[in-house]
Amino acid sequence: MEWFADEAFWQTLYPRLFTEQRFASAAADYFETPDQDLDVLRNVKASLKKDGIFLIDVIGKEYLASRTCRTLWEESPEGELFIQHCDILPGWSRVRLQWLLIKKDRTLRFELEHNLYSGQEMVALLRKAGFSDVQIFGSLAGTPYDSSATRLVARARS
User: What is the helix (H) or strand (E) element at residue 156, kind and residue range?
Assistant: First the structure.
């Protein structure tokens, strides 16, 4: 994909998406089908040591369903504008994300789609992959996965 080659895009965008305080592991939802997601999770489990811990941090269906505005924007102190828009695809199984970064005289655009999971769907997928002691939280700080959660964080043991 062309966007990987655009280093300026990632140097600017990556710190906005992945801060030092947050390890975001969204690898399990960037494939076309839940079966492919399951294959990835089985490979993760096979790669972990016995009783190893796997964390995954994604956006949950419940959070997206609660949002009335699907477009967010943020302006940096340098005047760069970052815009993110999401469209829920029919059936609520996938989301299409569009990111737009406007820097002075340059505009960078990136689009992707990925599978969506509710908290219980994520728990079921991790268990089907062979993980045990699966727990879900609303943040990496361990807050409850409830109506105020902005993230879907799952913790599972190999």
Answer: strand 152-157
